[in-house]
Design a protein that fits this description.
Layout: E1 2-4, E2 7-9, H1 16-26, H2 29-39, H3 54-57, H4 66-71, E3 84-85, E4 96-97
Antiparallel strand pairs: 1-2, 3-4
């Protein structure tokens, strides 16, 4: 795997260079901000924030206030002893944690 900006590309991808160019393109601050403005999903690219619309920056559903962020917690990773059992074609209600 080749990791870049939190994105992952298989190292044996048939068009690795094209994948890396695409990642570089979408991480361009102006392009990244356009994506945020279009899909209403916050960007972690700090350089892009100056290009995000003021309405988007002020939208608490996209960028929660510090007060809200301080009340949030991160989910802890599951123990390696816990796995979800899935089988092809098995209805979701029959899948279970083990």
């Amino acid at each position: 795997m080749v990791r870049r900006y939190g994105r992952t590309v298989p190292k044996d991808a048939p068009h690795l260079e094209a994948a890396m160019q695409w990642i570089n393109y979408i991480e361009d601050p102006k392009v990244n901000a356009e994506i945020t403005n279009e899909v209403f999903y916050p960007t972690a690219n700090r350089a892009a924030r100056q290009y995000v619309t003021p309405a988007m920056i002020q939208d608490a559903t996209v960028y929660p206030s510090d007060e809200v962020l301080n009340r949030m917690t991160l989910a802890k990773p599951l123990s390696a002893d816990i796995v979800i059992v899935r089988a092809p074609g098995l209805p979701r209600d029959q899948q279970r944690w083990c």
